[in-house]
Amino acid sequence: MTNHIQSAIQVAGVRIRQDLEGRFRINDLHKAAGGEKRHSPNYWLENQQASELVSLLETTGIPVVSLPGRSGGTYVAKELVYAYAMWVSAEFHLHVIRTFDDLVTGRIAESEARQARQRARLEAPAMTDAIKYTRTSAGKQLAAYHFSNEFDLINRIALGQPAKSFRSLHGIAQDAPLRDFLTPCQIKCVEHLQRTNAALIEVGMSFEDRKAQLSRIYVQRHSRPLLAEVARMEF
């Protein structure tokens, strides 16, 4: 029976396994730290500071568990992960902190992206309604390309290319929702530009003026986060 779960955390190229309660395998952390005998988790757990920290954590849960078998080892609470890393070295401690912070940030970013996708879906009708209203109230004809042009405008600015090209480049099926394949920063950009465009349409701004305004917003608000996101993904 499997007594651990896959973890998204890697420290120095070593995947840190977790048990079913979310504790982290300190043996993996030892390996990530270089695997030196003097940094053995057993030595650390025997020192006074570690013992006191374990005692404090025991008031609210089970901070240390030893599991048998091939995938066994010693699994510890996150607080003990930090404490062990600090015991190894200041450099390793900082590396572990930043790794765990990146994981939390990534989860928050993905949660925000899911919310942005939902807003983008809900607000898409607002943009199409704005197009309908402004054209019909001005006595102008309404055609399908009036809608596709607006969504194409958003995609060209936010993604740097039309949806068709983006799908082809990333192997996305024609019937698959494009928004579901965007990164957190991309979907936030699309959602923001889409919402802004609807408001600009309603006040009667021309297509070219809206294009210029949305491009400025992209540069001011979204270009840096998108570039940083690409750099993180490539790293």
From TrEMBL:
Q: Where is the KilA-N domain?
A: 3-103
One matching Pfam family: KilA-N
Q: Which InterPro entries match?
A: KilA/APSES_HTH (IPR018004), KilA_N (IPR017880)
Please give the name of this protein: Putative KilA-N domain-containing protein
The taxonomy runs: unclassified sequences, metagenomes, organismal metagenomes
